[in-house]
Amino acid sequence: MLPILPKHLADRACKLSLLGTILSSGYSLYSTYGKPRELNMHAIQSWLQSVLGAKDFIHLMFSLLLVTSQLHLKIAALPVFCRALYHVARFLRRNFSRSSFYRGYLEEPCLWVETNNTTLSLLSSNAELALGFLLIISLFSGGATSCRHSCTGTCFSNASSLTGRFSWLARLLLFMC
To answer: Into how many domains does the chain fold?
Structure first.
């Protein structure tokens, strides 16, 4: 995702962006829904039913899953990047529309981001689908859970550890990452 940086810095930047998404989504959920009124099962269940449909909850679970994973998938930062790009463009357009710097340099890119929000969400959805396939393949492969280093952006130790049926799909998805 960040080709200019060395591999260990790019992995750390990816993890930190996911941690930032966890914090911002958690704060957004807390400020919108608060915490459960009481700590009994019925109150927690009704609170969870209202929270489960929120977009921030989905981003929170997505980021939690990928931060705690031992796989180093740089494509995981793509949905986070698309969401952040949309929010930054909306913030700049709302708060700095009278600035000459904004009008000169940032108005057209921000307008493009806001008008092509569907394209960004499709890109984000495709990246999430690819991640889902990679996580399913890593579940069926034995080498992905015990590896501690990152080679080619993921944590597969070698291609022969993958099961025969999924090796071509894994190689294709790894090539896309």
So the answer is: 1
